[in-house]
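Morning, I've got a small favour to ask if you have a moment. The fold is given in discrete form, as structure tokens running alongside the sequence. I'd be grateful if you could look everything over and explain what you see. No rush at all, and the record is pasted right below.
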Amino acid sequence: MLTYWLMFLLPAVVALMMETQRTGTLPADDEAETPVGAWIAAGIVLTVLIGFRNEVGGDWFNYFRNLDDLAGAMLDDVFLMSDPGYQFLGWLSLEMDWDIFGVNTMAGAIFAIGLVFFCRNLPRPWLALAVAVPYLVIVVAMGYSRQGVALGLAMLGLVALGKKGTGWFVFWVMLAATFHKTAVLLLPLAALAAAHNRFVAVAWGVGSLALGYWLFLEDSVETLYVNYVEAEYQSSGAMIRLAMNLVPAVVLFVWSKKFKFTEGERRLWLLFALISLALFGVFLVSPSSTAVDRIALYMLPLQLVVFAHLPDVLSEETETDVTVPLLGVLGFYGLVQFVWLNFADHAHLWLPYRFYPLEAMF
């Protein structure tokens, strides 16, 4: 458990140290205040901890069996398989004799790069990184490898979209869909966030979603429906996780004008907030909480965005020292991690954290 707490406390402490060093500069200057080397180090640490975990995560043995199924496969066959991006990582790992740790390390590196780039484009990047640790890093990246990679690539796309790089957003999301098909559901967001003409936005959104469906979902939609909806799978703790997206969604709607967004960013994150509210409503009537829960994973970046801005928003709104709401955010996510590690139904699958190189040595 100590490893997980260090993962949270290190960026939390840096976020507090950065606050004490402020001298009236704009929040966005945080990126310039932190040496690039520190972020590279953070990315490497995340990659190593994700990549060299041993028997950690809810889907560990499923992914291990998937690697066994790849043994002897030809490269041409790999790209015809379901989720070919992830299958290629497995094939490459087997070719290099890296076993499951090669797959997880490459997947962890992609996720870490996406997360670091995303955080560095927020007002308080180290606070955003601390917010990401309890669920996005520990549960998703260390538990759902394919969707973790898809989220990392999607975050690269969201950074590009924030800088009006719609084409790059589509590229990153399409690439994400080769790791987990459901990533194509993000495609219409580019049109709705970037286009000023409603007709163009709707046409672009429907067209991109249709293309994504044809490329990635057409052959699998029946299986996905049977597995997630007809089987009525239930995810333990889904309501709590959906509520965690609900909180920043409500905050954003209440104080949207206080957030220092460009107009495009405002539309994008209000869309994320609206979808988060809708998913919570769907969850209340859905026969399958797992289906809603997995889709809601793509809304997780909303938490990083809202809580990275929130200290400034609350400080302005209440005329208090910005350190107070910053400590409140860190305290809230520290509590989230404490509750998950100690009371979640499946936390035992993550505990204790096992680091393969140390286990191999001793």
In short: Confidence is low (pLDDT under 50) at residues 23-32, 224-234. Residues 263-285 form the longest helix (23 residues). The two ends are 19 Å apart (CA to CA). The chain is about 75% helix and 0% strand.
